[in-house]
Specification:
The structure holds 2 protein chains of 2 kinds. Chain A is of the alpha/beta class. Chain A is built from 19 helices and 8 strands. Chain A is globular. Chain B is α+β, with helices and mostly antiparallel strands. Chain B starts with a strand and ends with a helix.
């Protein structure tokens, strides 16, 4: 095996992955008559396509390329882990992101195939039957299933802002019960991770993230929408490691959310050179200059968008000159604020009705980052003085 | 007899309470048990924040929300005396991306909702996994969308005065090739005939010539007499003016002008959804309405035989895809990349403004109204297409979808008619 030749420090990890896969293989499949491998083949994907995909996912999870065959093995045993997918207060955009996922359509195919004992947008059953499916799945796969939740949990008015199913069961109760018996819990998207758009001030429905209503550990995969690679990657990570991934302060997997958008940005060179878009549509915009001054929130946002991009790697907001909105940060609606304006300006002359800069930093929760903010803002200001635009 | 039925797969769910008598549906109440309060959240925010917040209303027609909110601001600027003139390039890019969104929506509705449900309803299941076809079509066309809009869902690239992207010919070529691939797939799988042949037809009489999955759907619907059911008030309204859509209202055989000022919203008992009417009357919105108001020949001739039936309504939506694909090709060919992307050099610092933004979203006319005082939003109204079609009705008449369902022999048939309106729960209640 090539692994010995490359880097022996990965040996232990490689062996533990192998053991974990072997262990999962002994579990019963959800559908004995079929396999993921066959399903992928049937849809016209060659072995080569499949390995290419596995190689890509290996890179996404920051593993050496020698792990690619293991990745392929891992996805083949994914059908031992049933997935329960719940929709809470949301716009269905995260499912859309997954449905869109196709490079080739292997990601979507995997979800199409393995999971979705219960996924409202995709599943065939409807109405009463769907509700029974959920209860059935929870009972049947108790302690084994992976729970993926999309959407915030409305808790206001005793949870009455979201009722589901024929018995008008409250969303928060469904999410709580499903969490109780899950082997692992992933909050997919900013809504499920942190409450999302509906949790913005004044939060009319009292929406909160999933972690607020369960005492079990929740892995957050935020983004509005999150990239499909981060969703599938989180699942693969769980299959391979069998444990929670290394998480940051907001319970986001570090393999995906370790770096700031700003750190890996394709326009970073322009920032360093002090070349900024001053107004949308100006000469700098045509040159692809840094978008900080027109409100890019990349310096305060942790995600791997510049690597994964969206719609199967087609593009992302920075590429089309709009800049980052900070959508994978908690409460970004309230804390990141004004579109088209740098965050630092809010700290100097706040738009937050009369509160001073210090109060804003404190109340709005960017205290941690404010030193950086000032630094970046200062850089932006100085660069204008040094390099005046004609 | 009262029967409760849950309707799923409409970006959330709805509860329909059917009243049956003598084996037919006599009345229906539509309720949504879901509320997020997006309009409330917008109050107090900076006027431009609507550009990022409103797309999050819906994961399917988010781009239409973005366009409606940017137009509301542009309209507000204009009313305050600031001239907003979009370059043809910016206008073309916005139209192209909107077309892409409409196409992905219609095709997902076709493959994930209508075709499998019709098959189940009439017992003609093929067991085919249509989800893969839906996914292929929609992922291909949304890639073309993302080339200009950065990402989909939840694109943010439209700003007052234009768009932020500055595409080169490379992006345009990529978009062209993605569009060509969508067209190829559509020709081979959906309609089973070359595009040009389809577009050359102008009479419903040629319906049988359509092959592919669409042909199969039409065949099943004709066999089941679906040209005779699902009829509503036969009144249509369109507010948007873009692509090949024209604003106006169509009643009987006449089409007349409309003014968005006469659109009224009202709270409904027992539901988080608001009712909406035009001069106190209810109208249907969506692809059928757009075709009727623009007097599209093929839909008009079908309407002559089948009125606003299930068959006509479903046909119009898929038919619109063909025309959108064709139109999008021309749009890309006509893009002049040397024109400016955004034309407002500095965004005017206006303290107060009021504006209305209208766009033709996948499901019909979408209206945003914004009122800004001292730089902050004091009121924001989002009127979505599904509200038009699903209003409960008033003392004079039943709501559009309710009228269409009344008289159905079974609840399954009524639910199918309900879905032919392409319902979106998250939009309706926000």
């Amino acid at each position: 095996m090539s692994i010995e030749k490359t880097d022996s420090s990965y040996d232990l990890l490689y062996r533990s992955f192998k053991e974990r896969i072997a262990q999962l293989e002994t579990l019963p499949k959800m559908d004995e008559s079929n396999s993921i491998e066959r399903a992928i083949e049937e849809k016209g994907f060659s072995r080569r396509d499949f390995m290419k995909w596995a190689g890509m996912m290996t890179a996404v999870l920051s593993l050496p390329s020698s792990f690619t065959p293991l990745m392929a093995e891992a996805i083949k045993v994914a059908d031992r882990l049933p997935i329960v997918w719940l929709h809470m207060a949301e716009c269905t955009g995260c499912s859309e992101s997954l449905l869109r996922s196709a490079e080739p359509t292997i990601d979507s195919l995997i979800f199409d195939y393995i999971s979705l004992e219960y996924h409202e947008t995709l599943m065939a059953a409807a109405g009463w039957q769907a509700e029974q499916n959920l209860e059935g799945a929870i009972e049947k796969y108790k302690g084994r299933y992976i729970l993926m939740v999309e959407g915030g949990i409305p808790t206001g008015n005793a949870g009455a802002y979201l009722t589901i199913g024929g018995h008008a069961k409250k969303g928060k109760d469904i999410a709580y019960e499903a969490s109780e018996h899950a082997a692992a819990i992933f909050a997919i998207g900013t809504c499920s991770a942190f409450g999302g758009v509906q949790a913005a001030v004044p939060n009319p429905t009292g929406a909160v993230g999933l972690s607020e209503i369960t005492h079990k550990p929740v892995i957050n995969v935020p983004g509005c929408p999150p990239s499909e690679k981060n969703i599938v990657g989180t699942l693969l990570h769980y299959i391979l490691y069998g444990t929670l991934p290394a998480l940051d302060a907001y319970n986001r997997p570090k393999w995906a959310y370790r770096n700031r958008i700003h750190d890996l940005c394709e326009r970073r060179g322009h920032f360093d050179a002090g070349e900024f878009v001053e107004q949308f549509g100006d000469a700098g915009a045509k040159e692809g200059y840094c978008l900080y001054k027109v409100g890019c929130k990349g310096p305060y946002t942790f995600n791997n968008c510049s690597k994964n991009k969206f719609n199967q790697g087609t593009s992302w907001p920075v590429q089309v000159g709009f800049g980052c909105m900070g959508c994978s940060e908690p409460d970004f609606w309230d804390t990141m604020g004004v579109v088209g304006e740098p965050l630092s300006e809010k700290l100097y002359n706040t738009t937050f009705s009369g509160m001073g800069a210090d109060a804003t930093a404190d109340k709005i929760g960017v205290t941690l980052l404010s030193a950086t903010v000032v630094g970046i803002a200062a850089h932006a200001v100085i660069s204008t003085i040094k390099k005046p635009k004609e | 007899m009262q029967i409760k039925q849950l309707i799923e797969k409409i970006e959330g769910e709805a509860e329909l309470d059917f009243t049956l008598s003598h084996g037919r549906v006599e009345d229906v109440t539509i309720n949504f048990g879901f509320y997020r309060g997006i309009e409330e959240i917008l109050v107090g925010k900076h006027l431009l924040d609507a550009l990022v917040i409103t797309p999050r209303v819906c994961g399917i027609c988010n781009h239409a929300h973005l366009i409606a909110s940017v137009r509301a601001i542009e309209d507000g600027y204009q009313k305050a005396g600031v001239e907003v003139a979009l370059s043809p390039k910016a206008k073309g890019i916005r139209e192209f991306t909107l077309s892409c969104e409409l196409i992905q929506n219609h095709m997902k509705w076709f493959y994930l909702t209508i075709l499998p449900q019709l098959e189940r309803l009439v017992g003609a299941e093929t067991g085919e996994n249509y989800a893969l076809k839906a996914s292929y079509l929609s992922s291909t066309i949304t890639k073309a969308l993302a080339l200009f809009a950065g990402q989909w869902p939840h694109s943010s690239y439209a700003v007052p005065g234009g768009v932020t992207c500055d595409p080169t010919y490379v992006e345009v070529m990529q978009a062209q090739s993605l569009l060509d691939e969508t067209i190829r797939f559509f020709e081979e799988v959906v309609i089973g005939m070359p595009f040009e042949c389809y577009l050359a037809r102008d009479k419903a009489l040629h319906l049988q010539e359509i092959a592919g999955d669409f042909g199969r759907l039409l065949g099943l619907m004709e066999r089941e007499g679906m040209g005779e059911v699902g009829q509503s008030h036969d009144r249509f309204i369109v507010f948007g003016e873009e692509i090949f859509f024209r604003s106006g209202k169509s009643m009987a055989t006449t089409v007349s002008g409309v003014d968005v000022r006469y659109v009224e919203e009202a709270i409904q008992q027992g539901s988080y959804a608001k009712a909406v009417s035009y001069k106190q009357r209810l109208y249907e919105v969506g692809p059928l309405a757009r075709a009727m108001v623009a007097k599209e020949p093929m839909v008009k001739s079908l309407h002559k035989y089948y009125k606003d039936s299930l068959l006509t309504r479903i046909f119009s939506r898929v038919h619109e895809v063909v025309r959108l694909l064709d139109y999008s090709k021309t749009l890309l060919q006509n893009l002049r990349l040397d024109e400016p992307s955004a034309t407002l050099p500095t965004l005017p610092k206006l303290d107060s403004l009021e504006g209305v933004g209208v766009v033709e979203a996948a499901r019909g006319s979408l209206i945003h109204r914004t009122r800004v005082v001292e730089g902050h939003i004091t009121q924001y109204d989002i009127i979505v297409p599904t509200q038009w079609n699903l209003s409960h009705g008033n003392a004079l008449e039943r709501g559009i979808a309710i009228e269409a369902m009344v008289g159905s022999e079974t609840i399954e048939k009524a639910s199918f008619i309900f879905k032919s309106f392409d319902i979106c729960s998250v939009c309706t209640t926000q």
